[in-house]
Amino acid sequence: FRRVLFRSRGPHTVVRLATAVALSVLLCLLGAAPAAAQSFKWWQSDRYRRDLSLTQDQSDRIEAIFQRSSPALRAQKEAFEMAQREFAKVVDSNDEAQLLAYIGAVESARAELNKSRMLMLSRMRRVLTPDQRARFDDLRQQRSSVSSSGSSHRR
Asked: If we measure between CA atoms, which residue out of 45, 13, 120, 129 comes closest to residue 77?
């Protein structure tokens, strides 16, 4: 393997290839987080509704945004996961052009999923008043801090 890899490529190409593969594998492992993170319907949570003084109309409007966005998000998540599976089949390939094509497909699918998710979240935020947005950001920060500290204690 080493002889084949170094025979036609210089050491810089090998380092770039190894870095790209390692980064892609890492990103593949972390890639599902954005989609999974939205499984919490905060606008239906008693705590968020209370702390944000969220009206029923606001909650309904946010749910409608979520429902309109969900089919595209699911399809994009499936496309992303399929691209990851295809990449996993060729990750050990010596064909750098092929690897780059698969890496490009994975990253393109990830970008499309994240763009759709961010657009949905932006639409949801526009339903909130400026004061509610500030309180929402505080609540998310608190939730993130609790999640971060909880995961470090589990190790």
From this structure: 120
